[in-house]
Amino acid sequence: MILSKEQALERMLNAAIRATVTLEDPLPVHVVLMATYDALREHAKAKSIFIELEWSDYIKDEHQQEWVNKYFKNKFYFLKHGTPDIASANFENITAINDMQLLHNMMMYRTIFRRISAHMHQFLTLLIGVYPNLIRWERMNVSADMKTALFETSRNLDRKDMVITFKPIFLADTKVRQEMERDLALASVEVVSRREKLKAEEPKRNG
């Protein structure tokens, strides 16, 4: 199966979103997100696409310093590069950092390719509920009614409860399911291809 850079990067972001929504281990999610960030940045550079995105574009003024500090102090590069001089790191804020990195990556993807996937659209909805007072939602093209409804829903829920509440809504979305079937089909293609290859080689082995 041949994929364009746009298709491959979408699948990486979709996979990170699915893992986040199903509360899977956030450490491999972080590595995927940082790799996707690097790939998006390099692709934009190769295509001479200027991406003028900063934390200040979507995090409110009063929270910017806190989040920038958390982000730059917790880039877990030793997970990706095996940095020998770093033996351990504090992963206390890993899920929140992943959420913000996912948001940043999605905005980069939208800037480069002028669209987002159904996974990304739904994840933006979740972020509204999880971070109602942190993000500049007026810049995210989200309707006022949706923001109000989600703010009310999230009033008494922590992040984990919001994700659990959101999961069935996410999985029920027809476009999300179609993207999941498309993305996961790649694994089936590889299995079928290997099975057919082994079947073709069987007469040679028996002969």
Which features does this protein show?
mainly alpha, 9 helices, 71% helix
Main β sheet profile: none
DSSP E strands, number: 0
Q: Determine the oligomeric state from the structure.
A: single chain
Number of helices: 9
Order of helices and strands: HHHHHHHHH
In which range does the helix fraction lie? over 70%
Q: What is the average of the pLDDT values?
A: 83
Radius of gyration: 20 Å
Which structural class do the helices and strands define? mainly alpha
Indicate the topology:
Blueprint: H1 5-21, H2 26-46, H3 61-73, H4 77-81, H5 94-113, H6 118-130, H7 144-154, H8 159-172, H9 174-206
Helix pairs in contact: 1-2, 1-5, 2-5, 6-7, 6-8
Textual characterization of the structure:
The chain has 207 residues and is an all-alpha fold. The protein has one domain (5-169). 71% of the residues lie in helices and 0% in strands. It has nine helices and no strands. It has helices at residues 5-21, 26-46, 61-73, 77-81, 94-113, 118-130, 144-154, 159-172, 174-206. Helix 1 packs antiparallel against helix 2.
